[in-house]
Design a protein that fits this description.
- Belongs to the RAD52 family.
- Keywords: DNA damage, DNA recombination, DNA repair.
- It holds the Pfam family Rad52_Rad22.
- This is Dna repair protein rad52-like protein.
- The protein is α+β, with helices and mostly antiparallel strands and 207 residues long.
- It folds into two domains: 117 residues, DNA repair protein Rad52/59/22 (Enolase-like, domain 1, 2-Layer Sandwich), CATH 3.30.390; 60 residues, 2-Layer Sandwich (Enolase-like, domain 1).
- The protein is built from four helices and ten strands, in the order E-H-E-E-E-H-H-E-H-E-E-E-E-E.
- It has a four-stranded antiparallel beta sheet with strand order 1-2-3-4. The protein has a four-stranded antiparallel beta sheet with strand order 5-6-9-10.
- Strand 9 and strand 10 form a beta hairpin.
- It is globular, with a radius of gyration of 19 Å.
């Protein structure tokens, strides 16, 4: 199923991201617009004996950011949401994809906004998750999950000349439905190291 949704304002939904951009560009000297959103799919799984109905929704968002001097960039974001109500699944997919698109388009403005996002936004996300953390997961291998990403890295670094490690994962909010536990947030730390021993570690967040 495909559907086009109306644009939205992210200031109320993701104030930390907006605050970081305000600090770099100046409050009132830039604007963002969710140009379009498309629901990629909607699906519902239901097991009458064990689990409740779970709604899955994917959404693609295009976001434009324009500065006071007329310079602008536009980029795309995607998010898949899983919730126990259809409305919440659609809402979270829309918000998640718009936030991802906004983050991507802000990064296209250069190193200054990149550093501010890392300084201000990511630490808060990690702090919020750690406050509600309930479980740490074992490291995993992403080759089977993201073959295209691994293939791209192999092409750049050379197959066998780099490696990746999911160093740590922390699950956040936990809730129980019909005896089954579900977690709504996760922070992951991933390390990539090259053959010459150069490496980087970064953090990702998803809800």
């Amino acid at each position: 199923m495909f559907a086009t949704t109306e644009p939205m304002d992210l200031a109320a939904d993701f104030p930390d991201l907006i605050s970081a951009a305000n600090k770099v560009f100046g409050e009132g000297k830039w604007n963002h617009t969710v140009v379009s959103q498309t629901l990629d799919f909607e699906d519902a799984n239901y097991d009458a004996l064990n689990d409740p109905r779970v709604y899955h929704t994917g959404c693609v968002s295009f976001v434009k950011v324009q500065l006071e001097n007329g310079n602008f960039h536009e980029d795309v974001g995607y998010f898949k949401a899983e919730e126990f109500t259809q409305g919440l699944s659609i809402y979270n997919a829309r918000i998640g994809s718009a936030v991802n698109a906004l983050r991507r388009v802000l990064l296209s403005f250069g190193e200054k906004i990149d550093k501010e996002l890392q300084r201000q936004v990511i630490p808060k996300q990690v702090s919020d998750i750690k406050r509600n953390a309930t479980q740490s997961l074992e490291p995993m291998d992403l080759i089977a999950e993201l073959p295209d990403l691994i293939s791209a890295a192999n092409k750049v670094f050379g197959e066998g000349n780099w490696r990746h490690t999911v160093v740590k994962q922390i699950l956040g909010k936990k809730y129980t439905v019909r005896g089954a536990e579900y977690h709504a947030d996760c922070v992951s730390y991933v390390k990539v190291q090259l053959k010459n021993e150069n490496f980087h570690v970064d953090v990702g967040y998803c809800s």
